Amino acid sequence: MEDIITSLKRKQEKPFCAYLYDLSKLRHYVNQLLTQLPGGCQLFYAVKANSDAALLRTLAPIVCGFEVASLGEIKKVREVDAKIPILFGGPGKTREAIEGAIDYDVALLHVESMHELQLISHVACEKKVSVSVLLRVNLRHAVPNAQLKMAGVPTQFGIDEANIPQAIALAKNLPNIKLHGFHFHAMSNNIDSKAHVEFINHCFELAKTWEEEWDLDLSYLNVGGGIGVNYLDTENQFNWNKFTNKLKNVLKKHNKANWKTVFECGRYITASCGYYAAEVLDIKQNHGHYFCVLRGGSHHLRLPAAWKQNHPFTIVPIEQWAYPFLRPELTNSAVTVAGELCTPNDVLARDIVVPRLRAGDILLFSYAGAYGWSISHHDFLSHPHPARIYVETDFIYCAEESVEKNLDRFSAAIKR
Ligand SMILES: *Cc1c(COP(=O)(O)O)cnc(C)c1O
Fold first, then answer.
1. CA dist 222 to 93, 140, 243, 263, 415, Å?
2. Are strands 289-294 and 274-286 parallel, antiparallel or unpaired?
3. Which residue is closest in CA terms to ligand 1's atom 7?
4. Looking at the structure, do residues 259 and 278 belong to the same domain, yes or no?
5. Is the confidence at residue 38, as pLDDT, over 50?
6. Segment 333-361, tens digit of pLDDT
7. Residue where one domain finishes, among candidates 265, 293, 313
8. Exactly one of 125, 203, 292, 342 is catalytic; which is it?
9. Which atom of ligand 1 is the closest one to the Cα of 46?
């Protein structure tokens, strides 16, 4: 990635600011994940982590389908693939979204409340179709200690575990509703593979109890996403190998050959294929602390500010220097990486010791492919958006709608 940035930078004068997506890496990585996933498991991609069409297009032939949380995401998926299975979750589904889900042939709706169950049934009756659903469970216990929790603690998500029997009874009585199983998405950014397997085991135990007690014929156990990325210690990631080996034992123990175990991962799928590159505009010392100011910031990559953590980066040294005066520089010092916004919250990393940093160098943030651009407040201060550059096995291309005119010169495919 560093060599690509250096060669792109050589061709432009404007300060560099871009999201780069390595599509060949994404393809290879997801295929790798799939080879280790036990039989009977299905991997879906949770579109909200990054709904960029090029990523969806790369993933569509590999993953089992897409998980979406809005009618907008349903449409984005259907623009890329007319047939691929879609799972539709998320709280606050409107009547319009439910109608859209039916019209766009969504495979399963994840029901978030008793009211929503009745609304889905109502719409299904009007349209004279039957709708397949999973009930989303808000667990009372046994949720791993991840960065964010959607269950195991009081939240707006799903149906309280204590009320699931009522919801099952309602689903069995409602016309045009087919109950196929349960949905347990409960956390975000869990990097403990052992805790994740224990969580899945707990989901199996509950679903089996409900199936027996209510004489159900289930076909799906959706264990959600929530597998994480270690942003603070990048050498120490979620151990997929250990996880899938332990998972095999859990599946064997429960012996539910007619159930599909569904994963709907977002972060774990696209985080590592995405990079955010931003040029250093200035370096200064205030109150004895070094700051560098980027052409970019939290309006492009909000994650580190949202979670108040440092985002990992490397420095791409750039030898060009356009001006006849001294280039700001620091050596062997701690520096805080700030963006171009007029708020002290616009910080991507704090007090990171670097060997050398100069104005004009480019910082390359890794693990920026999930919850980066898609969760950021792009137009605060009206700076230009970053370019979007896609790296394929043997060529590079730039998004046509890129607002950085300078980078449009790269839009003709560049040979790697
Ligand atoms: C956000 C979300 C996901 C994906 O979560 P990751 O932590 O990115 O894996 C999956 N399912 C639901 C219901 C979600 O809301």
1. 19, 17, 17, 6, 42
2. antiparallel
3. 226
4. no
5. yes
6. 999 999 999 999 999 999 999 999 999 99
7. 265
8. 342
9. 4
How far from chain centre, in Å, is Cα 186?
15
Q: Residue 190 corresponds to which tokens in the numbers above?
A: 């869990």
**30: its two tokens:** 């997801």
The model's confidence at residue 400, banded by pLDDT at 50, 70 and 90, is low
Range of the domain at 182: 85-265
Six-digit token string for 12: 């432009």
- Residue 125 annotated among the catalytic residues of the structure: no
Q: Is 48 in the pocket of ligand 1 (CB under 6 A)?
A: yes
Q: Which is the closest atom of ligand 1 to the Cα of 228?
A: 7
Ligand 1 center to residue 292 CA distance, Å?
A: 34
Q: Residues 6 or more apart from 39 whose CB is under 8 A from it?
A: none
Torsion, CA 266, CA 267, CA 271, CA 276, rounded to 10: 100
How buried is 313 (Cβ within 10 angstroms: 0-12 exposed, 13-18 middle, 19+ buried)?
buried
- Is position 39 within any domain? no
Which CA distances in Å does 58 have to 6, 10, 268, 378, 400? 26, 29, 15, 25, 18
| CA distances for 258 relative to 39, 42, 218, angstroms | 12, 13, 8
Cβ–ligand 1 distance for 149 under 6 Å, the answer no
| Residue whose entry in the numeric block shows the structure tokens 């999930």 | 370
DSSP reduced 3-state for 3 = helix
Reported as a single tens digit per residue, the pLDDT across 86-102 is 999 999 999 999 999 99
CATH number, position 249: 3.20.20.10
Ligand 1 pocket test: which of 264, 267, 371 has the largest number of ligand atoms within 8 Å of its C-beta?
Answer: 264
